[in-house]
């Protein structure tokens, strides 16, 4: 096990130290990746890097911190459950895309109406 300081982890995952501490506070980063050294400083296992990269991927895919914490709290999700969670998120994204497309068309129509208007 290679232990790293939080500043090392921060650089490797391209996240501010404050964000890593926030994830710790919210219970997103399991304590299994951290130990306290003799000076009571956090030391991180090198396996935290792929974990945080996965976390960043989930966040960029639209999962909230709350959703991720819920997923992590369920130990050993069955493959079917994982697929169900992914399908639910994809449906949410599709619904959001539809709403955004509707809003875009409304604005485009509004612009066209404004251009056609003679004052």
UniProtKB/TrEMBL annotation:
SUPFAM superfamilies: Putative DNA-binding domain (SSF46955). Pfam families: MerR_1. Keywords: Coiled coil, DNA-binding, Repressor, Transcription, Transcription regulation. Residues 79-106 form a coiled coil. Residues 1-74 form the HTH merR-type domain. Gene3D superfamilies: 1.10.1660.10. PANTHER family: MERR-FAMILY TRANSCRIPTIONAL REGULATOR (PTHR30204:SF69), REDOX-CYCLING DRUG-SENSING TRANSCRIPTIONAL ACTIVATOR SOXR (PTHR30204). This is MerR family transcriptional regulator.
